[in-house]
Design the sequence.
């Protein structure tokens, strides 16, 4: 560390240099990110509440109240009143909390010491982290022809050690939705927990269903669903880090609560101790500001752009992996391997990402991608098709 202070001007000159290395959502060339530029209201509120620490909530009672209000707003679009839960750092922490609660309850109430949890092959890598950290066995379920969890595989895999099934509502790679209603039936019949990871789809599916999109039920309206992950910092337009973990009741939080004797609240169930309160306030603010109408308009706009992109890809001769269910479009060049194709796109200035199963270029059509951005992208794709 430097011995003497340096000036603000010198410091910010250095910081500007490093910031210039970052990609910017506003440039319109980030095609592979599930996150997007936060809403201006969310940015302003985040700064207003940035000192709040919900790890010691008795000192920040107003921010704690806003966390509860944010959770209730999330519950209102996910078919539950007064859910138990927290605004956390993101989908990974939310999924870890769910798996921890499930494992503890199965151990303490059912005496299961060798727990197994069934997840689809398309599940987020956070479940592998949970397996490593929490010591359960992960059963990776095969996918059907639509890249959704195969219901027969799940039914045949349930045994006396199965403590939970995980279904995905908006898979990370393709935006597919698992057969959550059938998974709910299996969970109820076998008295096991169903966790739904709707980190991506949770801020799209409810609004798209309301305007007539043919999408399945996926939330607490189904009796088997006991917990859900939803990320406000994705389609919710909240600032990073803002994930949501919702449980059907407080019993699940109690199952992983530990004593915190020197804090203002004497029990803590979250994984992290110090917690940023600003994201709870910002999540509440942007949800109140946009309302159902605002989110519906944004979800429809994202799907309209996704369908525009997918139809034009087919016209150019590209191979769609699946017809988009949500605002993710996955495709391949007919003559170029996916990784090589990704490198070509990067040479053109496009920052894409690749799915792993199946291998494909994936474009997440989020808030920062305009129609004009997609038109420019398609022009480059037409040139690439002509070259190769």
Sequence:
């Amino acid at each position: 560390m430097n011995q003497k202070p340096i000036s603000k001007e010198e410091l910010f000159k250095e910081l500007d240099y490093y910031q210039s290395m970052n990609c910017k959502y506003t440039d319109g060339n980030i095609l592979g990110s599930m996150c997007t530029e936060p809403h201006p209201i969310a940015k302003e509120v985040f700064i207003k509440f940035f000192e709040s620490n919900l790890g010691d909530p008795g000192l920040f009672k107003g921010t704690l109240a806003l966390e509860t209000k944010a959770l209730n707003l999330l519950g209102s679009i996910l078919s539950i009143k007064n859910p138990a839960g927290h605004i956390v750092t993101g989908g990974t922490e939310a999924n870890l909390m769910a798996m921890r609660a499930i494992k503890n309850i199965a151990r303490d109430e059912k005496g299961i010491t060798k727990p197994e949890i069934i997840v689809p092959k398309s599940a987020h890598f956070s479940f592998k982290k949970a397996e490593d950290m929490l010591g359960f066995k992960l059963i990776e379920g095969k996918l059907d022809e639509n890249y959704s969890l195969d219901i027969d595989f799940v039914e045949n895999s349930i045994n006396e050690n199965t403590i939970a099934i995980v279904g995905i509502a908006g898979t990370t790679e393709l935006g597919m939705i698992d057969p959550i209603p059938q998974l709910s039936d299996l969970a109820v019949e076998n008295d096991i927990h169903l966790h739904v990871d709707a980190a991506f789809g949770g801020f799209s599916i409810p609004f798209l269903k309301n305007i007539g999109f043919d999408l399945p039920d996926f939330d607490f309206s189904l009796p088997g669903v006991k917990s859900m992950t939803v990320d406000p910092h994705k389609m919710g337009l909240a600032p990073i880090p803002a994930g949501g973990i919702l449980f059907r009741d407080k019993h699940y939080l109690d199952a992983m609560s530990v004593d915190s004797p020197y804090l203002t609240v004497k029990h803590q169930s979250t994984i992290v101790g110090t917690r940023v309160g600003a994201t709870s306030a910002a999540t509440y603010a942007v949800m109140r500001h946009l309302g159902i109408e605002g989110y519906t308009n944004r979800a429809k706009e994202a799907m309209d752009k996704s369908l525009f992109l997918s139809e034009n890809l087919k016209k150019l001769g590209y191979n769609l992996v699946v017809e988009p269910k949500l605002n993710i479009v996955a495709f391949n060049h007919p003559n170029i391997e996916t990784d090589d194709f990704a490198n070509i796109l990067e040479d053109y200035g496009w920052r894409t990402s690749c799915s792993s199963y199946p291998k494909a270029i994936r474009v997440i059509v989020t808030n920062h991608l305009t129609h004009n951005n997609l038109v420019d992208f398609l022009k480059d794709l037409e040139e690439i098709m002509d070259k190769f």
